[in-house]
Structure formats: C-alpha cells, structure tokens
Amino acid sequence: MAQGGAQLDPLKFSCSICLDLLKDPLTVPCGHSYCSSCIKRHWDEEKIKGIYSCPQCRTSFKQRPNIKKNVMLAELVEDLKKTGLPDTAAERRKKQKELEESRLNIQQRIQEREKEVKLLQQQVEAINVSADEAVENSEESFTQMIRLIHKRSLEVKQELRSQQQTAVSELKELEEKLQQEISELKRKDVQLEQLAHTEDHTQFLLSYPSVSALSEPTHSSSIQTAPLRYFEDVAAAVSESRDKLQDILRETGTNISLRAAEEELLLLQPPKPPKPQPESRADFLQYSQQITLDPNSAHKQMLLSDRNRKVTLTFRQPYADHPDRFTGYFQVLSRQSLTGRHYWEVERSGIGFILAVTYKNIRRAGINCECIFGFDDKSWAFTCDPQNYRFQHNNAQTEISGPQSSRVGVYLDHTAGILSFYSVSETMTLLHRVQTTFTQPLHAGVRLSFKRSSAKFLKPQ
Q1: Cβ 409 vs Cβ 343: under 8 Å
Q2: Contact (Cβ atoms closer than 8 angstroms) between residue 328 and residue 364
Q3: Residue 121 φ/ψ, nearest 5 degrees
Q4: Among candidates 99, 72, 69, 93, which has minimal Cα distance to 21?
C-alpha cells in the first residue's frame, strides 16, 4: 500500500484551505475533501450569509450539509505519511509562501496602477470640464463683442449722418444767399444795359449814380475748389480699430490654450461679478431649457414620443441593441450635455417615477447598483412616491416631505455645484437642494418602474 501511495500526487491529499495534509478528512456533496476543522470553520463564517459553499468549486448549498468522515481517504493519507510525504508537504508550504508573496506584490502593483489610472481619468475629466467652460465663456464673450461692435457701428453711423446734415444745411444756406446775389446782379446788369442805350445825356447822368451803385458781397470768397475729403478721420479711426481687432483675434488663434484663451477674453472686457441665484419664477425662466431624450440610451421596453420629449413604459421593445442602451433598468438619458445654468420641468403620470442628473459615463449594461440612478457617485436621483419624496446619491437616502404635484422643476448651476428640485403648481415650492462639486458635464435622466407610467419634459414658460 505504501509503495502504491508513494506514486500518487501528494497535492491531491492536501486540504485546499490550510494547504497541509488532510486531517480527519470530510467530503462535501460536490466531491471535494477538506480537513474537518477547516471546512467547519469555513461554514461557520458563512452562516451569516444564509448560504454555504465549497471553497474550491464555489458550489452553493441552501442548507448546511450533514457530512461524515471519509474513512478510505483517511487511510490513504495515513499510508502516504509513511512514504516521506511530509518532506513533500514542507516543500509545498515553502513554495506556497513564495506564491502568496508574489500574489501580494502583484496586488499591490495593481492597486498602484489603478490609482494612477484614476488620477489620469480625473485629469481627463478636469480638462473636459475646463474646455466646456472655456467654450461657453468664449461664445458669450464673442457674442458680447459682436453686440458692442454693432452698437458702436450704429452710434458712429448716427453721428456721421448728423454731421452730414449740419454741413449740408450750412452749404445750402450759403448757396441760397449766392443765388439771391446772382439774381440781384442780373437785375442790375439789365438796368445798366438799359441806361447804356439812353439817348438823353441829361437823363443818363442823373440815373447813373443810383443804377451803377453795387452792394457789398455777403459771402466768403474762401470756398474750397480742391477735391473734398469729409469724414476721412472717422473712416481712418474705424479702420485702425478693425486692424487692432484682427491682430487680437489672430493672436488668440495662434496661441490657443485653455488658460491663454481665457486671459485674452479678459483683456477684451472687464470681469463680471457672478450672477445671483434665481429666486422668483421669472428668474428661473431665464434659464429655461427644453430637454429631449436620447433613443439610443432608452431601455428596450421604453417608448419615446412627442419628438423624444415623452417616455412611456410599454414592454413592447421598440428599439434595437445599442452600446449606450440601459439593459437592466427602465432608464433613459437626455441628448443635451448640461453645463452652466439650466431649468426644466417634467410632467409625470402614474407611479414609480425617478428624476435624475448623471454623468454620461454611468454604467449602462447589467443589473448591479452601478447602473441605477442614485446608487453610485456619478448620479443624483429624486424619487416621487405617492405620499412623499426621496433623494438619493451614492446609495445614501434622504426622506423629504413637501406638497405633491404632477409637475417637478429642476434647477442646475453646474459651475456653482447647485442642484434643486421644486414642486410646481400655481407656485414653486423648494423640495430639496444639493450643494456639491460637479466634475463632468451632466445629463438629465428619468427612470420608470410601473407599466403605463410616463414622464414628459417641458420647457417652462
């Protein structure tokens, strides 16, 4: 027996829990064997889970198996001990210790690399957010510049026309005086011609003094005869301003960067203090936003209608597979990427309604917590139950009381990190406000839980 046992693989007679030779071996229903004390201790630890499993193959049992000692295996182990197997076991323990050290080293390196990857992702997110803010700020600044230039253009045009009218009026007045003088001179010339043909010498001499007398000219003799160049200084000033603006824009284009672009814009206009947060409904309507939903993100059993502004739970599966689609929960995201300030409203019907904002990179496939609005650190969810409200973020819940209404308003100030929810009827009632820091652009989202429930995104007016 000893000779036969010596030819067997010693590892087959070791406990996979303690890695030593089996002691009082017990065989579980799946066929694997362990030391009696090892398997009992393992199942004692799993007792709180309410389910028992094999440490080797992970086969699970709803009830703790009633197992007995494997007598044949115990005899084989005793025979193998006589063949020098304990020298083999000591070598295994040595190599096993080296293996564990190697695994520990690998796990430490994995943790370090995961931290580095997370830092890189944070940097990418920061760059994206900064770029979005820079684009938004630059668009607003250029819009203001265009308005200022247009306003100044109208002012210059009005001033030029005013100066034109004044100058023309003065010249018209002088022209009228000259025409009067010409008429008088022509009349005097006719009188002199008639006097020249008078044959009576006495009559000629008597009439000559009064007829020949000329009045003094009333106009200035310094009228310019050279080509006139009116308003050239104005045209030159406008042309100079144009050249300066072209230089600024050219420099901005050739030295573009997130920081440099912002500094160039600050040179063009004085900094503005932050706008106060809205208080009245009229204030909120300044940031009114029409939200449309993305069909590629909607769960297959959600139907979009009304130009992708309404979603209903139908169970008819109207959509094909798509990598952006939620597969485990009845959820859908907006097309719009939201930064800056926005306000929108949602009309709900039925029960099981959750309104949310989330980062775009929320997990879509599966039925784990990372896919549900409000259960991870990438989304903020507001649940409307028939009797109360509930806010949830990163799986932390807050119960909220407030007036029930079929319409819910949402206000977002991405830069300030403010997210507010309102009950909207004849008045707006604040239900809950969040103060946090958003590191990525947000998308509006909605989750439905029951058939025939629906949600419609409205543009407040």
Answers
A1: yes
A2: no
A3: -65, -40
A4: 93
Render pLDDT for 404-461 as a digit per residue (tens, 0 to 9). Answer: 999 999 999 999 999 999 999 989 999 999 999 999 999 999 999 877 789 999 988 8
Which 3 state secondary structure label does DSSP give 343? strand
pLDDT mean across residues, the chain: 83
Instruction: Report the run of H or E that residue 409 belongs to, with start and end.
Output: strand 407-413
Confidence class for position 233, pLDDT limits 50, 70, 90: low
Return the sign of the alpha-carbon dihedral for residues 326, 329, 330, 334. negative
Measuring CA to CA, how many Å separate 159 from each of 83, 152, 155, 238, 428?
114, 10, 6, 13, 49
Q: What is the pTM of this model?
A: 0.45
Phi and psi (nearest 5°) for 175?
A: -60, -40
| CB-CB contact of 46 with 121 (8 Å) | no
> What type of residue is 304?
L
Distance CA 334, CA 317 (A): 19
Q: Find the helix packing angle between 201-212 and 85-196, rounded to 10°.
A: 160
Report the C-alpha gap between 32 and 14 in whole angstroms: 11
> What's the CA gap between 418 and 75, in Å, rounded?
72
Q: Name the β-bridge partners of 162.
A: none
Q: Give me the helices (H) in 335-451, please.
A: none
Per-residue pLDDT tens digits for 277-313: 999 999 999 999 999 999 999 998 889 999 999 999 8
User: CA–CA separation, 294 vs 308, rounded Å?
Assistant: 7
Does the structure show a pLDDT above 80 at 38?
yes
Q: Give the end-to-end CA distance of the chain in Å, rounded to a whole number.
A: 92
Q: Which of 24-33, 67-76, 153-162, 192-201 has the highest mean pLDDT?
A: 24-33
Task: Quote the CA–CA distance of 71 and 75 in Å, as a whole number.
Answer: 6
Distance CA 200, CA 220 (A): 40
pLDDT reported for residue 14 = 85
| Tokens (6 digits) for 241 | 């301003």
Question: Other C-beta atoms within 10 Å of 389: how many?
Answer: 20
Q: How far apart are CA 429 and CA 403, in angstroms?
A: 8
At residue 347, the pLDDT reads: 94
